[in-house]
Amino acid sequence: LIVEDYEIPIEDIVRRLKQLLINRVLVQLPNGLKRLYPKIRDFLSAHGIDSVLSLRPTWGICDLAIPEAKSLGIKVVLHIGHHAPPECRVDSVRVIFLTSTYIIDPSKLVYRIVKELMHRNMLSTGSRVGLTCTIQHCKYLSNIIRELKKLEIDPIVSRSNKNGMMLGQVLGCDYSAATSIQNEVDMFICVAGGRFHALGLAATVDVPVIGIDPYMKSYFNASKELRKIIAQRLFILSKAMDANTFGIVLCSKHGQLNLKLAETLKERLKSLGFDVYLLVVDEVTPERLDNIPWVEAFVSTACPRLAFEDLSFYRKPVLNPGEVKYIIRRDLSTYRLSDSLIYSPVIS
Ligand code: SF4
After folding, report:
1. What phi, psi does 277 have (nearest 5°)?
2. pLDDT tens figures, 72-131
3. Nearest CA to ligand 1 atom 6
4. pTM, whole model, 2 decimals?
5. How remote is the CA of residue 255 from the centroid of ligand 1, in Å?
6. For the chain, first and last CA: distance in Å?
7. One-character DSSP codes across 129-171
8. 112 touches 148 (CB < 8 A)
9. Which of 3, 9, 273, 303 would bridge 39 by S-S if both were Cys, CB 3.0 to 4.6 A apart?
10. What are phi and psi of 285, to 5 degrees?
């Protein structure tokens, strides 16, 4: 099914739902794709399947609308727009995953940008370029490879070993498709909307990273931009060094709940004389943390992307678990931003 500028392979799913005798589903879409829902609803409805849209702002498959499905008595969640194994079961709810591919092939754009990088002497004939992308663009990887070869660039691609990941695909918390080849490449290109994935990649590898945005038809030097984020993190960590009372934040989302890690952090900080509270929330937001005035610094065990967002809305320092060791050592001289990304969502 083509909906606006996305291709969603929903036809096969309808057959699967019929096999399962399902006539009602809960549809989950990331915020940026919720606008596609009316056409999806009409398609399902034309095949005798009723649907409800979840308004949960899902950022990944770590964030499934299981509580909503259970409270509505719906047996199947259609989760659209993120990587995943085709199906999984959480409690009594079956989750069926559907990709969404941006239908505009970015390969010519990549060709044009790489040519420009060559003019700027950032790449040259024979350079080895690692290619990564988000799921919306994976389908075009072979076209991108072909365009790079025309420029006599040597493209290198790998795959994460996480179930359901496509060739070259990265997530905000999984860059293993890049780390496995970082010693073989001179530069990485990350084809993804916005800056987040390219910045995360730049924080993870020791090779220059260029982000290419197929929606804006533009590129940016992620490795250069990362320096600003590192400065911001160092400022936040230096403020956290004055804290005596910590709040360890647990997130109740299915794939972000890290109780064991939170308890380990609590015990470690307590053993060093800090006062520590365990807190749980469904989504980490400034408003929710503002309600806890007695805590002087938070450690979030939820999605690590928080460290890359604009934290100026948070009144207190918010650290990721990998950053706590710098507070314990009281030394930031060896700080690496990749410590903000040490986390892997639990998907069962
Ligand atoms: S935990 Fe990983 S998959 Fe989930 S929203 Fe964060 S970066 Fe994305």
Report:
1. -115, 140
2. 999 999 999 987 777 888 889 999 999 899 999 999 999 999 999 999 999 999 999 999
3. 303
4. 0.89
5. 9
6. 28
7. EEEEE-GGGGGGHHHHHHHHHHTT-EEE-----STTPPTTB-B
8. no
9. 3
10. -135, 155
Tokens of 144: 């991108």
Q: Quick check: 348 pLDDT over 60?
A: no
Distance, CA of 309 to CA of 342 (rounded, Å): 16
Query: Cα separation of 331 and 342, whole Å?
Result: 19
**Cα 347 to averaged position of ligand 1 atoms, centre (Å):** 11
- For residue 106, give the DSSP letter: -
Which amino acid, one-letter code, is at 73?
Answer: G
Q: What is the pLDDT of residues 134-192, one digit of tens each?
A: 999 999 999 999 999 999 999 999 999 887 789 999 998 889 999 999 999 999 999 99
Q: Burial code of 168-189, b = ≥16 C-beta within 10 A, e = fewer?
A: bbbbbbbbbbbbebbeebbbbb
List the beta bridge partners of residue 319. Answer: 299
Q: What is the DSSP letter of 241?
A: T
Helix axis angle, 222-240 to 196-204, nearest 10°? 80
Q: What is the mean pLDDT of residues 319-329?
A: 91
* Spatial distance between the Cα atoms of 113 and 105, rounded to a whole number of angstroms: 14
Query: What pLDDT is stored for residue 343 in this prediction?
Result: 53
Q: Are 90 and 254 in contact (CB under 8 A)?
A: yes
Q: Which of 80-89, 238-247, 300-309 has the highest mean predicted lDDT (pLDDT)?
A: 238-247
- Spell out which residues line ligand 1, taking CB within 6 angstroms: 59-60, 62, 171-173, 256, 303, 305, 345
For residues 348 and 238, what is the distance between their CA atoms, to the nearest angstrom?
Answer: 37
- Dist. CA 109–CA 234, nearest whole Å: 36
Please tell me the distance between residue 316's alpha carbon and the centre of ligand 1 in angstroms. 23
Question: Residue 309: is its pLDDT beyond 80?
Answer: no
Q: Quickly list DSSP for 24-90.
A: EEEEE--GGGGGGHHHHHHHHHHTT-EEEE------STTS--HHHHHHHT--EEEEESS---SEEEE
The amino acid at residue 72 is: L
